[in-house]
Amino acid sequence: MAVPARKTSKAKKRLRRAQDNLKKPEISFDESLGDYRRSHHVSLKGYYKGRKVIDKE
Questions:
Q1: Which of 15, 26, 44, 51 is the least buried, fewest Cβ under 10 Å from its Cβ?
Q2: Annotated region Disordered: where (predicted)?
Q3: pLDDT digit string (tens) for 29-38?
Q4: Which residues, in sequence order, are CB contacts of 37 under 8 Å at separation 6+?
């Protein structure tokens, strides 16, 4: 059975494990506005759940 010659440091372990939880953002097409938006976020045009919540001036 293979045994490591030296203990792996905490920094080395964390560096290797840091990329495990990276995921791409959930982006969906909003048919009412005709553009893409992230889930549970305000769209670029200022709409959320079909209502205008931000006025861009």
A1: 51
A2: 1-23
A3: 888 888 888 9
A4: 27, 28, 30, 43, 44
Contact 26, 38 (CB under 8 A): yes
Distances (CA, A) of 18 to 7, 21, 46, 56: 19, 7, 34, 38
Measure Cα distances from 1 to 4, 30 in Å: 10, 55
Partners of 23 in beta bridges: none
Tell me the β-bridge partners of 52. 47
Cα end-to-end span (Å), the chain: 68
C-alpha distances in Å from residue 20, one per residue of 30, 41, 44: 30, 24, 30
